[in-house]
Amino acid sequence: MSQKILLLEFQKVFGNSFAKELLFEFEKSKSTYWLGDITKGLLHAARFSEICIACLKKVSEPSINIDLNKIKFGKFYNDLQKLLSKIFFFFIFYFFNSIFINNSTFC
Prior knowledge:
The chain is an all-alpha fold. It has helices at 3-14, 16-35, 38-60, 73-106.
């Protein structure tokens, strides 16, 4: 998939600034890795990780405004972890409920 197509798809979901910054940091981390510049590669990879978690936060809470220069990585990570645990428990409940209902109809 070309970078232009990825940019358009990311813009639909995350918005223009998030999409551009996400792809920019990805390309920078990739190029610095291949050039052997480990320090810059780690910096760009860390920034890419920050933007990724900000994108996930944006998808989970579309009304929230996130400043790309002040990403609260720890807070976003904890919020998303809580959200995922709620989703996980919901699916476990649904799974066991469906097993109970299916098994009770055959008794």
